[in-house]
What we know:
It is a single chain. By secondary structure, the protein is mainly beta. The protein has one domain: Lipocalin. It has one helix and eleven strands, in the order αβββββββββββ. It has a ten-stranded antiparallel barrel. A hairpin with a 2-residue loop joins strand 6 (about 110-125) and strand 7 (about 130-145). The longest helix has 22 residues, at about 1-25.
Amino acid sequence: MKKQILAAAVLAVASFGAYAAEGTTTDSIAPSYTYVDARIARNAIEVDPNMSDVNFDGYNINGSFEFAEQFHVFGGYESTNNDEFGVDIDLTQTQVGIGWHPSVADNADFLLEASWINRKAEVSAFGVSADEDEDAYRVSAGFRGAFNKYVVGSIKANYTDGKNSDGEFSPTAGLEVRFNDMWSLIGEAEFAESEQHYTVGVRASF
């Protein structure tokens, strides 16, 4: 299953790069790698194949800064919660990384990123709480490009490996709709084997 997901992600990355190269216009604006954004977030986690996914809702804050033309550093923090079963469960995630984004066509870049991720789960019930956290590492590769001056798309294939979990491949797709040079609406979805992650929010680029 993981090999099929990886193969699909690689094919999608190749198709996206070709489309971005052909679909740009002379008035396109290149993607920005210096920004901050705030989003609402949902983690849909499969606990049992015979049960509905358990949804964790919350917020997500991200930032990125470009340096040396083709490089950027980025980071993010997310907090989501579920208390529908009478047990309060909080999930938090912190991510810090560095990326390389060389141009492959007008307004289209190749992406290669490496990051450290800390995940924490805290469970509270009847006045008693317990928590557990895990450090993980992620490598991502893909494309980001402007279809025109209003729409920017991205697609990546990720490999994430944690201390207490097996390595896993997952594809991520993102879409940015720009209102002007600074403000845009941003959305992203990631599909892992037993978890889907969705975010929608507002971005300010500089």
